[in-house]
Amino acid sequence: MKLLSATLHARVGSQMLRCLVAAALLVALAGTARAESASIVLTGADRRPATSLNGEWGSIIDPYFSGLFSFHHVEKKNGWFMNYKAKPGDPFPTEYNFATAPKLKVPGDWNTQRASLLYYEGPMWYEHDFTYQPKLHTHVFLHVGAANYRSWFWVNGQKVCQHEGGFTAINCEVTGALKPGANFVVAAVDNTRLEDGVPGLETDWWNYGGLTREVSLIEVPETFIDQYDLHLTRGTDSEIEGWVHVVDGQPGEKVEIEIPELGAKQTAEADSSGHAELHFSVKGLERWSPETPKLYKVELRTGIDSVNELMGFRTVETRGTEILLNGKPIFLRGVAIHAEAPYRTGRAWSDKDAETLLGWAKELGCNYVRLAHYPHDETMLRAADRMGLLVWSENPVYWAIGFDNPKVLAKAKQQLDEEINTSRNHASIILWSMANETPNNPTRTQFIETLASRARSLDPTRLITAALLVRAEGNTKIVDDPLGQALDVIGMNEYIGWYEGHPDSADTTQWKIDYEKPVIVSEFGGGAKAGLHGSESERWTEEYQAAIYRHQLPMLNRIPQLRGMSPWVLMDFRSPNRPLTGIQDEFNRKGLISEQGQKKAAFYVLQKAYENHAVGKAE
Ligand code: GCB
C-alpha cells in the first residue's frame, strides 16, 4: 500500500503539489493539529457519503496490554504500537509489524475469524493504510459503527479519540491528523469484561471483540448538522415537530427541511447554541405502521451541508393499559433477537444479516421485535423501518452490574445518550428499554430511575420500559418490582416450563401484576436442539420446546394488561454459559431457528398463533 501510493504520487507530481498547497492551507485553517477529541454523535451517519475503510486490517494480539500500558518500555505513554512506521533513529529493534501480521476482516469480530481467537479476551491492535486528499473547509470524521468494548484510535500516529461501550457508534474528528496521500489508522480494541463496565462481568452472550461494525471516513463542511429529531406530534396526524442542531454555525444560521413528496418545506433559525426548533403542518401524510411502513425522503440542509434521510412518521403513547400506535390500540406480536449472524455466526452487522433475521420475524407473523440486549447495528433499524417491524431498543444494563458505582452510572448514561441520539429518527423504535433482569434493591432502582428520566428528557416521544424479574408465591406470579413505577410499559421475563416446572405448569399459573400499565412478556421459552426429536416430556427435544409454547399462549391470555410478547429467542446464539456437549456446544438453544437456519417445531406453533391472533386482545 505504502509503496503503491508513493509511486502514484511520483507520477502525479502536479496533483501532489496541489495537495500540498491544500494541506498547508488546511493546517493554516485548523491551526496546529487538533488534540485528541471525544467521539461525537452523528445522527444519520449512514446517510452521508462516506469513504469505506472496511476490508483487511493488519492485526496484532496483545494479551499483556503491552502496547497500551507497558511499564518497562521508555514510551510509557499509551499506544506505542501506533508509531510503528516512525522508525528512523528508533533505539529499539522493531518487534511488531502490521504489514507482516495476520489480517482481520473489518467489520467483523475476531473470535469467529481465527480458531485461536474464539475465546480471546484482551486488547487487539489493528492497522489499515488508506490514501486521502484533504479538502478545504471540511471536517473529517473516522466513523466506527461499533468496537467492543473499549477502543483507542490514532491517525498517522496522532491519537484522535477513545471510547467505551461496545454497541454504539464512534465518530472521531481526524481533520488535523490527515495528510495528503498515504495515511494510516491504528486502533486498539480491548474486549476485557470489566467489573465497572456496562454490561458487567457476566452476560449470556459471546463477548465478541473487535471492530464489529463498518468503518469509514465521513466528510462534512465547516458548518454542519450533527444531530436532528423529526417526528409526528402526539395526538395529530399532520403536525411534524423536532429540532436540528448545527455545529460551528452563526447564531441565526438557517436550517431548511424539505419533504418533497408532501410538498413541505420549512425553515428555522438556529440559536446561539446551534439549536433550531421546527414545527410545521403537512397535508396528505401517510402514517408509518407495520401494515404500511411508508418512508419519506426528507432533506435537511444548512448552508452547504445536507443530509438526505428516509423517515416514517407515526405516534406512540399509552392510554391506561393500552399501547396506541397512531392513536389506535396495538398488540405487539414479537420475538426477541440477538445480534448473532445467521449461518456464519459471529456478530451480525450487514444488511444481509438484518434482512435474514427480520425476514424470519416477518415470516413468523411478527409486527414487533425486541432487539436484545444492547443497541443493534443501524442496518437492523433501517431494515425494521423498511419492513414494518416495531422495535424495542435496549441499553446494555444487564443482570447485576455495579449499581452502587457512580462511574458505572456515567457509562450507562453515556451509552443511552449515544443510542437515543443516534437512533431517534427511526419510526420503528417505539420503546427504549433501560435494563434487563436486574436485582430488586433500592440502589438498582435509583440507578435505573435516573436512566429512565434521562431517556424521557432526551426523547419524550417514546415509551420507557425494562425487562423485570417476576417473583412467585405458590402458583401465583407476582410483578411488584418498584422499578415499574418509573416505566410506561412493564416488561417481564418468565421461564415457566424451563427453569421451573414443566410446560403444563403454565396451565395453573395465576398472575398478580401491581401496575395498571401495558405489560409485555419480554421473554419466555426453552431450549431445543434442532433436529432432536422425542416426547413432549424430554428436554432439549423440539417437542418439549413446542409444548412450552403451546401451554404458554393460553396462560398469557390470562394477563389482562398483556399488550405484547417477545419469546426468547428467534435464533440460537453463542454463549459460554451453555457448554452441554452434543446439545448446546456453547450455543443458547432457545432459538425458534438454529444458527444454521433450521426452523424448530415451536416456530410453527408460534406462527400459527400469530396468524390466528390466538394471543392478545384483538386489535
Ligand atoms: C434471560 C436473559 C437472557 C438469557 C435467557 C436464558 O432471562 O434475559 O439474556 O439468554 O434468560 O436463556 O436463560
Distance between the termini: 60 Å
Write the CATH fold name of the largest domain: TIM Barrel
Number of alpha- plus pi-helical segments: 9
Which stretches of 5+ consecutive residues score pLDDT under 50?
1-34, 73-78
Can you list the strand order of the major beta sheet? Answer: 23-24-25-26-27-30-32-33
Could you estimate the helical fraction of the residues in percent? Answer: 10-25%
Instruction: Tell me the CATH superfamily of the largest domain.
Output: Glycosidases
Look at the structure and give the mean pLDDT: 91
CATH class of the largest domain: Alpha Beta
How many whole angstroms does the radius of gyration measure? 25 Å
What number of structural domains do the residues give? Answer: 3
- At CATH level 2, the architecture of the largest domain is Alpha-Beta Barrel
Rough outline: globular
Structural class estimated from helices and strands: alpha/beta
What is the number of beta strands?
Answer: 35
Report on the biggest sheet: 8 strands, parallel, barrel
